[in-house]
Amino acid sequence: MSGASFRRLYLLVVLLHLVGDVALSPFYPQLFERLFGVTDPAATGVYIWVCRVTALAAMPLWGLLARRFSLSSLVLGSLGAAAVLELALAASPAYPVFLVLSAVQVAVTMAFTLAYPAFVGTGADRVRDVTVFAYVVNGGTVAATLIGAGIMALPQPRWGIAACALLYVALAVLCHRRLPRERRAPAVADSAPEPRTRAPRGAVAAIAAVSAVVLAVETARLVVRPFFTLYAQDGGVGTTAAAVLFLLPQVAVLAVLPLAGRAHALLGRALLPAACLLAAAGLAWQFLTVDPVPLALGRVVFGVGLGLGHVALDLRVFAVTGTDGPAFSAVATVRVAATLVSPVAATALAAGGAGLPLAAGAGLFAVLALLLCLPSRPPPPPGTSDDPSAHRTERPHHV
Q1: How far apart are CA 56 and CA 54, in angstroms?
Q2: What is the mean pLDDT of residues 363-375?
């Protein structure tokens, strides 16, 4: 089995995780009303928070399990459990049962997050792989939303939920037949396996630093989402136009990704602070004007910053964590934490005005860009000591 084949499987695992996580999220209020007759908006809030807290707790546990078991065994076990849970969700008789089963489902499927570093670790061109992943995430979000709309259009949404179990089963069969059975997939870019030694203090500090950057970027990105359509409508934009404006950054991300590799080759480590400055400028412009055309321009600039920043940030993450699951899971946990922090911050800011989350996001991106421009010592490669003589040179991995 060629490396390209199981690399495609890793991407399918990531895509299935994205579909399961995103598909029904825009439709929870309607789903709970149709399935259980629950109309209280608080039910949606409780559901989202329980699932996010569960994801936050589960991610580091999967990182620990990745130290003892192969990725293929973790993925196969999770796919099988997810298929059973999907059928149980479709048959849930009441909202509390659906809530508990969903939390278990989230905990199980967080294992799929480890497929991303496995995908990157089996390739020879890290910039290309990170860009491909960005395509999958952003394009998959749109596809997942369409799938969710299709499920809600069925006479009985339970049928669509149950049908998703077939996707887990089909992917489990493919993974069982084609994923490598060894403890770790061989990495094309690595000349020798990385020793499993205790991480030196410098490596731990580097992981903490890049985790802080991830938390800041994700919080600044997400804090502007919950109240944007309200902000646009307050400025006189209609509901449909507000929805289009909301999606513009996603479109801009997809449009700019083909340029990410060239931008990285030109700017190197300066790409991330430059992307943060673009995102800050786009958000600041949106805060300063509510006229439709300038607002749309601000949304596009913001999206360009997000697209370039996605690639630049993930390159920095892998430069610090390598492509080993346990180290990457620490950063993934921080990403989940941002989904808990950002709605609280957005709600508190919006109490003073629907545009304040935009101003806060712009400020956070701007401060982060300035901090990232400060000189810093390059992080040691994962699994090495702080002795410079022990560092391995991996040119495809430099950011």
Answers
A1: 5
A2: 93
- The yes-or-no verdict on residue 7 having pLDDT over 90 is no
In the chain, the amino acid numbered 128 is R
Cβ neighbours of residue 281 closer than 8 Å, sequence gap 6 or more: 301, 305, 362
Q: How many residues does the chain have?
A: 399
- CB-CB contact of 184 with 190 (8 Å): no
Give the pair of three-digit tokens for residue 138.
């952003």
Cβ atoms within 10 Å of 37's Cβ, excluding its own: 9
Per-position DSSP letters for 34-94, written without gaps between them: HHH----HHHHHHHHHHHHHHHHHHHHHHHHHTTTS-HHHHHHHHHHHHHHHHHHHHT--S
**Quick one: which of 258, 245, 323 has its CA closest to 286?**
245
Share of the chain above pLDDT 70, in %: 88
| Range from 72-86, 113-127, 189-203, 243-257 that averages highest in pLDDT | 72-86
Comparing CA positions, the residue from 203, 190, 201, 131 lying closest to residue 381 is 203
Long-range contacts from 7-10, C-beta under 8 angstroms, 24+ separation:
7/119, 7/122, 7/123, 9/171, 9/174, 9/175, 9/178, 9/179, 10/115, 10/116, 10/118, 10/119, 10/122
Residue with the bigger pLDDT between 186 and 63: it is 63
- Yes or no: say if 249 and 303 are a contact pair by the CB < 8 Å rule: yes
What whole-number distance in Å separates Cα of residue 107 and Cα of residue 102?
9
- Residue 22 phi, psi dihedral angles, 5° rounding: -105, -30
The per-residue b/e assignment along 222-256, b for 16 or more CB within 10 angstroms, e otherwise, is bbbebbbbebbeebebeeebbebbeebbbebbeeb
Q: How far apart are CA 357 and CA 49, in angstroms?
A: 20
Element holding 343 (H helix, E strand): helix 325-350
pLDDT of residue 391: 39
Q: Taking residues 309-313, what's their average pLDDT?
A: 96
Sign of CA pseudo-dihedral 194, 197, 199, 200 = negative
Note the Cα 65 to chain centre separation in Å: 21
391, 397 in Cβ contact below 8 A?
Answer: no
The residue that leads in pLDDT, 53 or 26, is: 53
Non-local (6+) Cβ contacts of 364 within 8 A are 216, 219, 220, 223
pLDDT tens profile 319-335: 999 887 778 988 999 99
Residue 182 DSSP code: S
